[in-house]
Amino acid sequence: MLDASTAVPLYVQLREELEDKIRSGSCQPGERLQPEGEMAKTYGVSIITVRKAVSELVEKGLVEKKQGKGTFVCKPKFTKDMKNLQSFSEMCAHLGMKPGGKMLENKLVVADEKIRDLLNLEKGSQVVYISRLRYADGDPVAIEKNYFPLKYAFLLGENFDDNSMFDFLRDRAQISVAMSEKWIGLCRVTAREAELLKLAKGTAQLFIKSVTYTQEHEPLYVGNQIFNGEICSFYVCESTDV
Asked: Which of 38, 54, 73 is the last residue of a domain?
């Protein structure tokens, strides 16, 4: 029960109690919370207190209000920390989620001008193209399209369904990823991309273009990633420190 004698406001206590239930799994994704009037009686507080606590849960993305239906627990978002360089598998592990993948293509293609410029290649150069559909706890989260210089042709024929490409490069070729430049924007998914991510064709989704470098400061690959914005978010920390 809530304690009115403490300095912590009742709405904060209620919010924290509800948040604990959601994060512990006592309240499952999709589960409907008590109506505000019932919750006020259950916890012995005013409806205003309930509304303020629930409003903060909405702001945190933990619950959502559906008009005429009530307030429901949201499915946790997959959050990509942009300030730390991590593989998809490492990000999932950090979030307590099970990573997965399905390789879509692994072949040689002729690099277009943009890929050539980022990889410092000559016109007509071929690159190793590897695309994968990535899963978090069984849900399709992202489509990866990576382009490697031909020196990484040993990647051809390898299967990258559920394993980490970062780990493979480190263990097989003693190549460690050191840095990545990223550009973030929006894109509209094609019919094929929509099918893979279980979305409607033309839906606007999060898009990351990146160039990843080795410890020798050589471009390792150019990557294009499409993230399902309904279940993904990006975290960036900014500072005025120089």
From this structure: 73
Answer yes or no: do 86 and 39 share one domain. Answer: no
- The Cα–Cα gap between 200 and 194 comes to 6
- Give the DSSP H or E segment for 101: strand 99-110
Q: Is residue 83 domain-shared with residue 164, that is, in the same domain? A: yes
Q: What is the pLDDT of residues 77-112, one digit of tens each?
A: 667 777 778 788 888 877 777 889 999 999 999 999
Q: Token pair 């809530």 is at which residue?
A: 2
pTM: 0.71
Query: 119 and 226 in one domain?
Result: yes
Given the DSSP bridges, would you call strands 177-188 and 139-149 parallel, antiparallel or unpaired? Answer: unpaired
Contact 55, 65 (CB under 8 A): no
- Reduced DSSP (H G I as helix, E B as strand, rest coil) percent helix, strand, coil of the chain, to 5: 30, 35, 35
Same domain for 129 and 69: no
Determine how many CB atoms are found less than 10 A away from the CB of residue 5: 5
Residue 193 exposed, middle or buried by CB count within 10 Å (0-12, 13-18, 19+) = middle
Nearest Cα neighbor of 160 from 101, 242, 203 is 101
Q: How many CB atoms lie within 10 A of CB 6?
A: 10
Nearest Cα residue to 224 out of 180, 194, 166, 192: 180
Half-sphere exposure in the Cβ direction for 183 (13 Å, CA): 9
